[in-house]
Structure formats: C-alpha cells, structure tokens
C-alpha cells in the first residue's frame, strides 16, 4: 500500500523554489480495538492539524487559533459535529460490508478514507485524490484522469461497478478535486498565513557517535518541512555513501532531519572535499564543510546527537499512534465540501465560508454485499 507520509516526507532532490500546499482529510473507523476510538477524523492544511473529531468526545474541535476566522459562524462546529457523526455511521456499515467481502468474522479491523488536494503556488498546478483502504491495504481509489474507480482487490469490484455508474457523482468529484478543494485550501492558507506560510531557518550541526560511525548532518528548527538536505564531494551531489533520514516533528511545531555520510573508505585528509548542503525556500543555501573541528561527538556532548533525535522519534511515535486511530495516511486522491453536510441539506447557501469541505462517507454497497 502506498501510505501518505506527508507529515514525515523528505524530498531529496532540487527545486525548492515552489511549495506544494495541501489540504487533507483522514477518516478512520475501527472495530475490535478497545483501546482506540472507533472513529476519528483529522483535517490538515500543509501537515498542520486544524480540525479533529473522535467518537469518544463526539465533538468537532478546531485545533488552531487561526481557525477562529472559520468558526465565527456559531453553528460551524455544531454542523461539523453532526456531519462527522453521520459519517461515523457509514463507517460502521462499511466495516461490516468489508468483513463480509473478505469472509471475516471477528478480530480487529480498520477502514480508512483519505481525500484532499494539492496546489503548487509556483505554476498554479493542482491535483486531487480520493482513496479508501481496509486493514492497511488499498481498497479502492478514484482516477481523476479517467473519472473511474480503481479496484486493486477483487473484493472492491462490486463497489467499483456501482460507483462507476453514478456519472453525476463522478463529475462532482472531479469538480471538487480540481476547484472546490483548492479554493478551500487557499482560504485556509490565508487564514493561517502567519503560521502556515512562515519560514524558519534551520540550525545545522555535524554529529558523530564514535570515530568509526557515519558523520550525521543534522538540520533542526526549520519550517516548513519541505527541506532538501544532501552531501556533496568537490561540489557534486553524492548519491552513494549517503543514508537519508525522514523529516521528524519537533515539540515546538518545527521539524528536523538527519542525513548520514559513510566515511569508512575516505581518509581524513580528504574530508575537506565534502560539504553538507541544506536548502529551504526563502533562505540562501546553508553549506557546512566536513571539518573535524565542527563535528560534535558523544564524548564532547552526549546530548548533541541523542536528545534532539530522541525527542523527534518520541513525537513521531506519538504521531504514529494517532495514525493508528485516525491518520493512517495514504499517498494521493480525494473529494467534496458540500457533501460534508448531512444528506438532504441545502448546499446552495451563499454563506458557506468555514464549512469543512468533506463529502459524506459512501456505503460500499446497498443492502447485502
């Protein structure tokens, strides 16, 4: 399965002049997991959570101060709560249907739905996606080019056949993914501009556990998370000897990443040919030469290597736990803000600002599967 690693993705390569902004929604329903809520919804803009709902609190909650511009409508959170509660019921139906399709009875099971859009602020290109998964595997996804559903497993074929027949819905999903979702994304970006569109300069350190260990180029405290970190030799980017890490969240909302350089076969007199380069939009490249005098080791400062990375890993583990309940993230494809209203509600209201652009969760089938 192609899991969405948007929060933790490090794009290695060049071309950081543009920023790919995203609006993602993640729904997770579960059964047989007594330690987790049976239903969770998370909405995220550029990897920052801005709305949350779960079946324990049974309330939609705005997670960012700038969401006050959306929640000025006193009925907003009440409306969203009702919408999510309705989706919760559909997820119960879908888990039951999926269990029948896979000939399952008991056990722990999860049904996930992820949808959203992306917008490149440089060339104004967009993309949209809508995808469902069951028990950690792709179940069915929407193909925006062909306006059809793709069923990677035979158990999803009945759903594909039924959904493909609804031509009006297919056109609506296309409109949402290419326009409505992007419009909402731009609104949220303007609401949270001071937070979402800021640039925090990374702090770069060279770390080494022992003389025989790789040298680690550790960048931390940067925002946004779309950073490029690489090693060079004589000014040329290295692809061998290098072990790139994932972008990890810091406790203060910034990010960190480490890229290892294996110097096993490199004599120390040649170290001066190497540099670590960090690129982040809005700042000049940060180049740090591989100078033994600049390397922090455990013998000099044991916290230099372990503490920032351990903190990031702990935060990552917490995020992963949340992912189990609600953010088992897929890699691309989604759908609609007006259908996030209860079925039968008036979608022609002029005052729709602040509405969560989430379509109703769809039943996999009608009646028996």
Separation of the first and last Cα atoms: 24 Å
Strand content: 25-35%
- Mean pLDDT, nearest integer? 81
Share of helix among residues? 10-25%
Say which CATH homologous superfamily of the largest domain is assigned: MHC class I-like antigen recognition-like
| Biggest sheet features | 8 strands, antiparallel
CATH topology group of the largest domain: Murine Class I Major Histocompatibility Complex, H2-DB, Chain A, domain 1
Regions with pLDDT < 50 over 5+ consecutive residues?
1-17, 301-307, 320-360
Q: Tell me the domain tally.
A: 2
SSE string, helix = H, strand = E? Answer: EEEEHEEEEHHHEEEEEEEEEEH
Your description of this structure?
- This protein is an alpha+beta fold.
- The protein folds into two domains: 20-195 and 322-340, MHC class I-like antigen recognition-like (Murine Class I Major Histocompatibility Complex, H2-DB, Chain A, domain 1); 203-320, Sandwich (Immunoglobulin-like), CATH 2.60.40.10.
- The chain has helices at 76-101, 157-164, 167-191, 193-196, 302-325; strands at 20-31, 39-45, 48-54, 61-62, 109-120, 126-134, 137-143, 148-150, 203-208, 215-222, 228-233, 236-237, 242-244, 248-249, 255-261, 274-279, 286-289, 295-297.
- The strands form three sheets. Strands 4-3-2-1-5-6-7-8 form an eight-stranded antiparallel β-sheet, covered by helices on one side.
- A hairpin with a 2-residue loop joins strand 11 and strand 12 (236-237).
- It starts with 19 loop residues before the first strand and ends in a 44-residue tail after the last helix.
């Amino acid at each position: 399965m192609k899991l969405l690693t948007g929060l933790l993705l490090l794009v290695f390569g060049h071309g950081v002049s543009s920023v790919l902004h995203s609006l993602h929604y993640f729904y997770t329903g579960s059964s047989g997991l007594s330690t987790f809520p049976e239903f969770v919804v998370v909405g995220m803009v550029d990897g920052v959570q801005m709305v949350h709902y779960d079946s324990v609190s049974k309330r939609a909650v705005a997670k960012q101060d700038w969401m006050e511009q959306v929640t000025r409508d006193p009925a907003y959170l009440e409306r969203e709560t009702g919408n999510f509660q309705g989706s919760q019921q559909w997820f119960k139906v879908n888990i039951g249907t999926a269990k029948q399709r896979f000939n399952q009875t008991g056990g722990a099971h999860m049904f996930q739905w992820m949808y959203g859009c992306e917008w490149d602020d440089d060339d104004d290109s967009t993309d949209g996606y809508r995808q469902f998964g069951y028990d950690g595997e792709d179940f069915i996804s929407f193909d925006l080019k062909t306006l059809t559903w793709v069923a990677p497993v035979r158990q999803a074929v009945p759903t594909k056949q039924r959904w493909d027949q609804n031509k009006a819905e297919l056109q609506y999903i296309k409109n949402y993914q290419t326009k409505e979702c992007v419009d909402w994304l731009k609104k949220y970006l303007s609401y949270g501009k001071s937070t979402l569109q800021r640039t925090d300069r990374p702090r770069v350190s060279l770390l080494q556990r022992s003389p025989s260990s790789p040298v680690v180029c550790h960048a931390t405290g940067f925002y946004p998370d779309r950073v490029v970190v690489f090693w060079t030799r004589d000014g040329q980017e290295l692809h061998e000897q290098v072990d790139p890490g994932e972008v990890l969240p810091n406790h203060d909302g910034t990010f960190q990443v480490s890229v290892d350089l294996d110097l096993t076969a490199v004599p120390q007199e040649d170290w001066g040919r190497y540099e670590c380069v960090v690129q982040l939009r809005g700042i000049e490249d940060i180049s740090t030469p591989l100078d033994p005098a600049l390397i922090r080791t455990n013998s000099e400062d044991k916290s230099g290597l372990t503490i920032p990375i351990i903190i990031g890993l702990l935060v990552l583990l917490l995020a992963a736990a949340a992912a189990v309940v609600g953010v088992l993230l897929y890699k691309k494809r989604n759908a609609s803000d007006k259908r996030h209203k209860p079925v039968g509600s008036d979608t022609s209201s002029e005052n729709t600002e602040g509405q969560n652009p989430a379509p109703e969760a769809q039943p996999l089938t009608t009646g028996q599967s």
